[in-house]
């Protein structure tokens, strides 16, 4: 330091305030996820805006998703297909007519992605393609559960950095223990809890 230099002692807070104003990830705004390409993926909160009826329908589908995830943990291609068919039937029964405009628009976008990748899991020729499509399905499902809430149920967003050709991939679990759906018995405990939702 030289005489006359100024020391900035609150710069982090200025930068953080700027991030908040731009709806970017900040100390106070943690509902923004950074995509793999570096751009922010903003996840709104509709917890107060949606009814428990809608949320309960969504969570019923999550229960089936967990069975689908467990089928992938077991590397059971047939059971994965069967559980995905059940999941698809359940998610298509979620009544979005009870949502207001903004939550409905968010739901519609992610619902279409979820349905598309669920169908691709069903049509997949092998377990590895099922796992690839499961990654895409999980990304959209995690965003919806973060946006709409869990009715005080606890879920864990878990992450394996080596999944999908070392690109890394997430999944939802109802327990903190890692049981990896992308590798099964080969690397059953590879991963970590990334986020707790409740």
Structure description:
49% of the residues lie in helices and 12% in strands. Helix 2 (52-73) runs antiparallel to helix 3 (77-91) and helix 4 (101-123) runs antiparallel to helix 5 (127-148). The longest helix has 23 residues, at 101-123. It contains six helices and five strands, in the order H-E-E-H-H-H-H-E-H-E-E. The protein has helices at residues 11-21, 52-73, 77-91, 101-123, 127-148, 163-166, and strands at 32-34, 40-42, 155-160, 169-173, 192-197. It is mainly alpha-helical and 198 residues long. The chain has one domain: Four Helix Bundle (Hemerythrin (Met), subunit A), CATH 1.20.120.
SSE arrangement:
Elements: H1 11-21, E1 32-34, E2 40-42, H2 52-73, H3 77-91, H4 101-123, H5 127-148, E3 155-160, H6 163-166, E4 169-173, E5 192-197
Antiparallel strand pairs: 1-2, 3-4, 3-5
Helix pairs in contact: 2-3, 2-5, 3-4, 4-5
Short recap of the structure:
By secondary structure, the protein is mainly α.
Overall outline: globular
According to CATH, what is the topology? Answer: Four Helix Bundle (Hemerythrin (Met), subunit A)
Tell me the β content: 5-15%
- Number of distinct beta strands: 5
Mean of pLDDT: 85
Q: Helix amount, in percent?
A: 40-55%
Count the helices. How many?
Answer: 6
Quickly list its features.
Four Helix Bundle (Hemerythrin (Met), subunit A); 49% helix; three-stranded antiparallel sheet; 6 helices; two-stranded antiparallel sheet; mainly alpha; 198 residues
């Amino acid at each position: 330091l030289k005489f006359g230099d100024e020391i900035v002692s609150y710069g982090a807070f200025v930068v953080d305030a700027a991030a908040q104003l731009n709806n970017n990830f900040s100390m106070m705004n943690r509902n923004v996820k950074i995509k793999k390409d570096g751009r922010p993926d903003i996840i709104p909160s509709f917890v107060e805006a949606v009814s428990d009826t809608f949320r309960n329908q969504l969570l019923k589908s999550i229960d089936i998703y967990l069975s689908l995830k467990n089928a992938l943990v077991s590397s059971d291609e047939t059971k994965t297909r069967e559980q995905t068919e059940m999941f698809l039937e359940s998610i298509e029964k979620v009544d979005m007519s009870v949502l207001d405009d903004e939550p409905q628009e968010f739901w519609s976008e992610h619902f279409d992605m979820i349905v598309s990748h669920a169908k691709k899991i069903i049509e997949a020729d092998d377990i590895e393609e099922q796992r690839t499509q499961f990654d895409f399905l999980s990304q959209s499902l995690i965003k919806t559960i973060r946006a709409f809430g869990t009715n005080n149920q606890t879920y864990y967003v878990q992450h394996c950095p080596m999944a999908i050709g070392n690109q890394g991939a997430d999944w939802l679990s109802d327990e903190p223990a890692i049981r990896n759906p992308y590798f099964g018995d080969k690397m059953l405990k590879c991963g970590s809890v990334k986020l707790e939702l409740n």
